[in-house]
């Protein structure tokens, strides 16, 4: 199920390919019907010596082939199939079947039971009103064939062995086609149900993010005033003669101002991570510059003992960065630092059309149940209320950028979290910048 956004309103639009897949199944079934009719007409006319109106029956076959070719061309370019279009396709099949039966004995033809194939396919593919309409139409066609049809010169023993053989062939054909195509159609429907379940789960997660965004917005407004007040007071203290003459106090005030600024940055990052995936003030930069600055800031503001940073991206690229991407990477690094204060590693690689960030630590690793539910809210081994939202937000930001998050435990101990982001979702342009 493809997700897109309307160009006019920006509202999410979901395209369901199930109807298209089912229509293609009907097209395949129609080709089988064409081949089957040709073989049946040949066997009956030349094998059983029952003379059929070959010219008229050939015209019906040509019309069916032309309709199927038109359907094949149409559904190569169109992707949304409605209930009405499926109903019309089945109605054409019923019409051509009725025409062939009319030309070949009407209700005396054992292949009248092929009507059941159309009814059963309708019951699987169509809505209730369409199914009952199909039942009424096929019943009317069958009744009409008992009253009006083109009689054939049948042999005296027609209702003996020839009719039984024809009925047996019709039964086997009905059974085989139903098993094959109902199985395929059910597989399409199960895939659709699975996609719908994923969408419902995603919608629930997005609703959870909206609630978190509202909570974060309220917290930001509440914290904004005291943080601004503290910043003003620290600025006033810095200008006081007694403090200005004390180098140690000035250094401590500078540290406090840096921590206040960091608090403001954290609040802004939470707002962006809980809401939109892209910030309000994107910045043009390059992959190397962005990551180098990010690592520098993180190392200066975290008490990490040993940090291994390896940038193997290669030729630099211009990208658009913002606080959400930065906060996403910081969240993963913070989790790794909390699990492994002694060592954290970050490896950057250029893998095809994607940017791959691998964060490693030497901590206890992830429990098995967390690896299964990675990215779900409140999945944490920290054992405190409200924990487990970091990777949840990281997963949602990555998903909005069409990326992914994966994790596994290291054999020697610790964990590895891999962030994969497609470059076309963050690239500023396609030009390559020479980098060292």
Helix content: 55-70%
Whole-number count of domains: 3
The fraction of residues in strands falls at 5-15%
Largest sheet: 5 strands, mixed
**What kind of oligomer do you see?**
single chain
Q: Uncertain regions: pLDDT < 50 for 5+ in a row?
A: 1-14, 274-280, 383-387, 429-436
- Radius of gyration, whole Å: 34 Å
Q: N-to-C terminal Cα separation, in Å?
A: 43 Å
Mean pLDDT: 79
| Number of E-type strands | 10
Number of DSSP helical runs: 12
Query: What is the spatial order of strands in the main beta sheet?
Result: 4-6-7-9-8
Which outline best applies? Answer: rod-shaped
Helix-strand pattern, N to C?
EEHHHHHHHHEHEEHEEHHEEE
Structural class per helix/strand content? alpha+beta
Describe the structure.
This protein has three domains: 2-202, no CATH class; 205-274; 283-433, Heat Shock Protein 90 (2-Layer Sandwich), CATH 3.30.565.10. The chain is 61% helix and 14% strand. With 436 residues, the chain is an alpha+beta fold. It has helices at residues 18-47, 54-77, 83-103, 115-125, 128-147, 161-239, 241-244, 247-274, 287-301, 323-339, 368-372, 390-400, and strands at 2-5, 12-15, 283-286, 306-312, 316-321, 343-351, 354-361, 404-409, 415-422, 427-433.
